[in-house]
Amino acid sequence: MAANLENLVDELSKLSVLEAAELVKMLEDKWGVSAAAPVAVAAAGAAPAAEAAEEKTEFDVVIKETGPKKIEVIKAIRQLTSLGLKEAKELAETAGSKVMTQVGKEAANDAKAKLEAAGAVVEIA
Q1: CA 79, 81, 85, 89 torsion: positive or negative?
Q2: Which of 2, 27, 50, 120 could form a disulfide with 73 if both were Cys (CB 3.0 to 4.6 A apart)?
Q3: What is the CATH number assigned to the segment(s) 59-124?
Q4: CB count, 10 Å around CB of 87?
Q5: Is there a contact between 88 and 66 (Cβ–Cβ < 8 Å)?
């Protein structure tokens, strides 16, 4: 049986594009099916996956840990935000606090780099 299938594949491989299209039409008529239906179903099934793969556009910059240089981290927070000394200190001392919310990817990465340079452990969520 496998040899017969291989021979069939070899013969079909020799068809031109026009001949292959004509063969498809003949098989559709003979079997009462449409070759386009499975393609449409596959495309419809792939649409939710494409939506799920959309890139996130807004990020939060979260301090996980201040690290040993608390004063440097507070200074970095004040540079990145318009917070006063007291508010910046509270953010630096509270693990899991959001320094910046709903910012672009570039701004989030820039803030992360500055806070990490100051000694903080930072996560972009």
Answers
A1: negative
A2: 120
A3: 3.30.1390.10
A4: 14
A5: no
